[in-house]
Amino acid sequence: MIQKIHHVGVVVRDMEQAMRFYRDTLGLPVHKLETIQEQGVRAALLTIGNSEIELLEPVVPDTGVARYLERKGEGLHHICFQVDDVERDLATLKMRGTEMIDQQTRIGLAGRICFLHPSAMDGALVELCQPLDDGHTS
Amino acid sequence: MTDFTLDHVIIAVRDLDAATADFAALLGRSPSWRGEHPQYGTRNTLFRIDNTYIELLGLGGGSGDPRWSGEIARFLDAHGEGVYALALGTSDVDATARDMRERGLEVINPADGEGIDIDTGARREWRNAMVSLKSTNGTRLFFIQHKSPVDALPAAPVVAGEGAHVQRMDHAVVLSADMEASRRLWGDALGARLALDRTFPERNTRILFYRLRDITIEISGGAQQTEEGLGKPDRLWGLAWGVGNVEATCARLRAAGIEVSGPRRGIKPGTLVATVKGEHAHGVAMLLIEHTPESFKPESRQPHGEAFDNTPQSRAFAVKALDHVVVSTADLDATAATWASTLALHASESLQPEGAHFKLAKLPAGNAFVELIQPLTADHRVARTIAERGQGMYSISIEVDSLDAAVADLRAKGVAVSEPEPGIWAGTRVARINKSAANGVSVQLIERPKAPLRSQGQ
């Protein structure tokens, strides 16, 4: 059950440079900046109202985000919806035969997450997340 | 990609016997080795703990190579006792020296070395290569390849009670005045994995965590890079020891006459820490840290991972919210049906404005909505984007308090913004930021009519 748009993900080549626009020019406060080695990205979360913009900079080659950057350049990458029970939603989607990138939920920057395959959504990359209890903006 | 271990940490001391007694008490272990290096003119005591070993290094034991003994004497004169060097373990020091030179480090030619245990006469052999201080911002580093088997240096026997001895090294702290130079050394040259980059504005601190297997090298500097700090040497400052039970360890140390403060909660959630103070620490800032199952949960990285610097910059407008996200499609009806059946996001409104070359559907999603857009002519900008990048994620629309103020402010800062115009959605006014200014994202600014009428959402 979708509760809200949790964030939109933007792939950037250079985090510092991206911060100059999103943080400094637009004035969106950063509330998290972290390198997630398993995903090969440096990620920043900026607050926008009761939603977020996630900036993603690939730090190792050959990951999904790095390939996206190589193929398409910088730009809007995905949309993440907050749900109340991501395990149940994933199970339902799989049962209906929706093509998924993640067959199991995993921990991401936004909490417990899973990605649908873009082919399931006519090309849009959609993430579902269920924030963890501690502190994350929700 | 390199994969160094933190082979050992060297602490320079003035009185090796006194330091050996103090460290045996601190660690709750007896030494693994007491030796001398005839060729260096130095003596040492080694403690192998679970994931690395500690070398206390003092002068004596023959005249030796003044490159080593002279350097230690100068260090003690200039800084007093303290962490002297970090030894990075490699399986092939000659290959490492070549690689690291290619990455810009000035590595002195590898040389063989040996140590002799003064009690048992046992010998250990290695081959090491020092890195010039000029290319490491002042952190003494060398690469070492052990030629003797690992068990040539036995674990330091535990003499303390349950949970009260030092099990492992948790992290080593390097103070840096030039964070960018530190990042080049640990990240670019040494290839260590960056696990965290966090700034605490209220404490004026920025920390970088680099991992060498399970040991963290913590680089700590100011929240803002200062002009004076550029090019200043780093300082090996402190060590954090992992213990099973910090309270039991504190009690044992106090009983041994060693000054300890704590335990208290650590910054990393789920940890308990205590600080060792006074002369028994021999110039090393020391932290005892106890991890609990909670501190190992990936979730605990959450509050641990913030990092940045929200420098206030003056703006004539405020961003209020993410208004909507635009998703492009070549077939609006089919895509709307897909979003409805897959995500239960249903179109509340569909429209094809008179004379417009596109049609839209609005899918409310709680705090904001998804707008599906289908271009109806091949030269519409959405059609061109679909041709270039495929259909899917297209743009975002962000609500500002005053569109005119935002446009003027952004233009004054050199950002290209279109003239404000009426938006598609009732009562709105919009302007578009050129995507080259926004990292390839097409960003629409939208101003909604003031209350009471809000057409957003459900």
Outline the structure in words.
The complex is a heterodimer of chains A (138) and B (458). Chain A is of the alpha+beta class. In chain A, 22% of the residues lie in helices and 40% in strands. Chain A is built from three helices and eight strands; from the N terminus they run E-H-E-E-E-H-E-H-E-E-E. An eight-stranded mixed beta sheet of chain A has the order 2-3-4-1-5-8-7-6. In chain A, strand 3 (41-48) and strand 4 (51-58) form a beta hairpin. Chain A is globular. An eight-stranded mixed β-barrel of chain B has the order 1-4-3-2-6-7-8-5. An eight-stranded mixed beta sheet of chain B has the order 10-11-12-9-13-16-15-14. The two termini of chain B are 52 Å apart. Chain B contains ten helices and 24 strands. Chain B has helices spanning 16-27, 66-79, 93-102, 179-189, 246-255, 293-296, 301-304, 332-343, 381-389, 403-412, and strands spanning 5-12, 33-37, 42-48, 53-59, 82-89, 111-117, 123-130, 141-146, 166-175, 193-200, 205-212, 215-221, 235-243, 260-265, 271-276, 285-291, 319-328, 349-351, 358-365, 368-375, 392-400, 421-422, 429-433, 442-447. Chain B folds into two domains: 5-304, 2,3-Dihydroxybiphenyl 1,2-Dioxygenase, domain 1 (Roll); 319-447, 2,3-Dihydroxybiphenyl 1,2-Dioxygenase, domain 1 (Roll). Chain B has 458 residues and is of the alpha+beta class. Residues 295-309 and 453-458 of chain B have low confidence and may be disordered.
Radius of gyration of chain A, whole Å: 15 Å
- Please indicate the percent range of residues of chain B in DSSP E strands (runs of 2 or more): 35-45%
Structural class of chain B: alpha+beta
Look at the structure and give the mean pLDDT of chain A.
Answer: 88
- Total helical segments of chain A: 3
Would you count the extended β strands of chain B for me?
Answer: 24
Query: Percent of residues of chain A in beta strands?
Result: 35-45%
Low-confidence stretches of chain A: 134-138
Determine the N-to-C terminus distance of chain A. Answer: 15 Å
Determine the N-to-C terminus distance of chain B: 52 Å
The CATH topology of chain A turns out to be: 2,3-Dihydroxybiphenyl 1,2-Dioxygenase, domain 1
Radius of gyration of chain B: 31 Å
The unreliable regions of chain B are 295-309, 453-458
Residues in helix, % of chain A? 10-25%
Multimeric organization: heterodimer
| Series of secondary-structure elements of chain A, N-terminal to C-terminal | EHEEEHEHEEE
